[in-house]
Amino acid sequence: MKYYLIIFYNYIIQGSMEQYFFNLLFKLISSVGIVFFILYCFFLSYYKYWEKRNFPYLVPRFPLGNSQSLFCKFPGPNLEFTDHYREIKKKGYKFAGVFATIRPILVIADTEIVKDILVKDFDHFADRGFYKTASDPLSVTLFSMDAVEWRKTRIRLTPTFTSGKLKMMFPLIICVSASMIEEIDDLAKENSDIDIKKIATNFTINTLALCALGIEPGKSESSYILSEMAQKHFDVHTPIDLLKYSLMNRFPDFSSILGLKLLKKEVSEFFITVVRDAMKYREEMKLFRPDLLELLMNIKNETKSSPNPLTDNQLIAEIFDFFLASLDTSSATISFTLFELGKNPDIQEKVRLEIEGISNKHNGKLNTDSLAEMKYLHQIINESLRLYPPLPTLERKCMKSYKINGTDLIIEKGTSIVIPVFGIHRDPEHYPDPKKFDPERFSDSNKGNIKANTYLPFGIGPRSCIGLRFGYLMVQIALIEILRRYRIAVSPSTCLPMDMDKQVLMLLLKNPILLKATKI
Predict the structure, then answer these.
(1) Which residues of the chain register pLDDT less than 70?
(2) Residues spanned by the domain of 166
(3) Domain count, the chain
(4) So what's the pLDDT on residue 8?
(5) pLDDT digits (tens, 9 = 90+) for 356-399
(6) Are 465 and 459 spatial neighbours (Cβ–Cβ below 8 Å)?
(7) Which end of the chain is more exposed for a tag (fewer CB within 10 A), N or C?
(8) Is residue 509 part of a domain?
């Protein structure tokens, strides 16, 4: 009897269970297959966007589109668009459509069309299209504002960066540079490798803290936390961060509906608290400081009764934008410039002689007049910005349907436009031997040979960078203070050739630039 029960179990019950699990697995695989097929057809329908409108386009791949990865580390176009630019030029197109997963983007390769978009027909493309949401007030800044708000705010803020205001901040920047030199000096004495991006970032953050908020470097806990929070904004530590930023990049409208915030909660709360406390302290103590916060507080008071007052949230957002816009751009330019000077000691020596000669002429003191006379230093910085533009792409959003000059093609309202600055700057059609660091391109005798609309480190047109003169001033002072004291060389520990991170908004290396400094 026991024998027959075992047979019954093996052939009837166990067989039924196996059949049950087989059927379940079949249904699961079938369901996944159906979902995959529906998703594939859905993506395929989106991939017809440029073809239906008779635009040239680069063939997308499911499910990435023309992207190299599903994920990105920060919203906005990245260095991948340099690859798109080169493929577009190779095919002989002036522009072409691509897809960020399924989002259609038009990439511009022709510099005349670049001029049309950024300058001539600016009213069609006044929006940047950068991600923002009303639930995240610090994301609504001069950089990201829609055209209507941008125009009103730009007019109010332009006086903040006049020559007179920069002169007020000049001694503050000089003051901060002293701590940067101390940091380099300690490393130079030990013949240690210098992570120049780290040094330049510390200098930039301390300068911004002093010039924007009156926070002296190392004099308060806020200065240390400010540095930590500024860096934390760009750091992607968790899969959630990666997923969030990727959604903002690939599906911005959907992300906005979900209320996804660009800023991390602790970063946002910290900046709001610091700025509000600083405002309150100055108002109560009737304290005056020659910095950005003081200028913005004056604008706030002057516009209180106007139809378009500057609110506290707007003021804080602009302070935050000032930090972010200057932080990575200035520190990257300082780092890349010193890297190239380390590789080219003859150029380094030539600019050092210029710095020493003009400094002696002004009794060893730096001022705006002496900086203006340092023409070769200007050439070096301009060439560094060509070779390493801190923002490797420019983004615009079409506000109203636009017919591309010389064609019958219409860019529809809402379409994202990307101008690959890095690709244009390194195009041999515009710059012979484009990878060579050659400051003579920008000499008085040669700069007239640079083709119009091919030099775009700060953009061109009405929506170009409002704070470029301040950022440029920081870079000048940092380079002068370093080069007049040290000979710079590239450390053998530096990983070459450079490997750029293609998944971030700014120009960023995967490995640090390591330098050696020898006291003069």
Answers:
(1) 1-27, 73-77, 218-227, 230-237
(2) 137-388+457-519
(3) 1
(4) 47
(5) 999 999 988 888 899 999 999 999 999 999 999 999 999 999 99
(6) yes
(7) N
(8) yes
Residue 331 main-chain phi, psi, to 5 deg: -65, -35
Residues 6+ apart with CB under 8 A from 511: 494, 495, 498, 499
> What separation, in Å, do the N-terminal and C-terminal C-alpha atoms of the chain show?
101
Contact 321, 498 (CB under 8 A): no
Cβ count within 10 A of residue 422: 22
428 occurs within a structural domain: no
The pLDDT value given to residue 26: 65
Query: What is the spatial order of strands in the sheet that 514-519 belongs to?
Result: 194-195, 514-519, 486-490
Residue type at 67? S
Its pTM stands at 0.89
Cα distances (angstroms) measured from residue 385 to each of 65, 141, 275, 371: 31, 24, 32, 18
Write down how long the chain is. Answer: 520
Token pair 């064609």 is found at: 407
Which pLDDT does position 120 carry in this prediction?
A: 96
Q: 519 φ, ψ to 5°?
A: -65, 135
pLDDT for position 328: 82
- Report helix angle 147-157 to 292-302, nearest 10: 110
pLDDT, tens only, 389-402 = 999 999 999 999 99
Beta-strand pair 103-108/416-419? parallel
Peptide bond into 63 cis (omega under 30): yes
The residue type at 29: I
Structure tokens at 107: 């990439």
CATH number at residue 200: 1.10.630.10
CA distance 493 to 357: 33
pLDDT at 232: 67
Compute the distance between CA of residue 178 and CA of residue 201 in angstroms, rounded to an integer.
14
CA distance 174 to 165: 15
State how far the Cα of 511 lies from the Cα of 497, in Å rounded to an integer.
10
Q: Is residue 484 part of a domain?
A: yes
For residue 244, being part of any structural domain is answered with: yes
pLDDT value, residue 363 = 87
| DSSP code of residue 12 | I
Q: Are 440 and 446 in contact (CB under 8 A)?
A: yes
Q: Which of 416, 398, 109, 421 is nearest to 248 (CA)?
A: 416
Output the six-digit token pair for 333.
């330019």
* Amino acid of residue 50: W
pLDDT at 192: 96
Residue with the two structure tokens 């083709």: 451
**Dist. CA 74–CA 249, nearest whole Å:** 7
Residues ≥6 apart with Cβ < 8 Å to 66: 58, 60, 80, 84, 98, 99, 100
Residue 28, classed as helix, strand or coil, is: helix
Instruction: Mention every residue, 6+ apart, whose C-beta is less than 8 A from residue 198.
Output: 512
Residue 108's alpha-carbon distances to 96, 97, 250, 416, 464, in angstroms, are 7, 9, 19, 11, 17
Q: Which of 179, 191, 183 is nearest to 517 (CA)?
A: 191
